[in-house]
Task: structure prediction
Amino acid sequence: MKKPHQHFIPQTYLRKFAHTITDNTYFVDGFNKLDSKIVEDLSVKDICVEKDIYTLKNLEGDQKYNIE
Result:
């Protein structure tokens, strides 16, 4: 099984803020607090993502992803 992308803010919620939609890809703008700069055209597939949020680490194989 492919390791899933786990969003801590659901993509369906982020899509409501999209300003550009091309080929079922939704884009939003963001603000980088460290650089104090606006970052334009971020895909909602690539933001608010973290690995292993919902992964059950004490199980083996595909059972690790049962919460998905």
User: Anything to note?
Assistant: The longest strand covers residues 25-32. The mean pLDDT is 80.
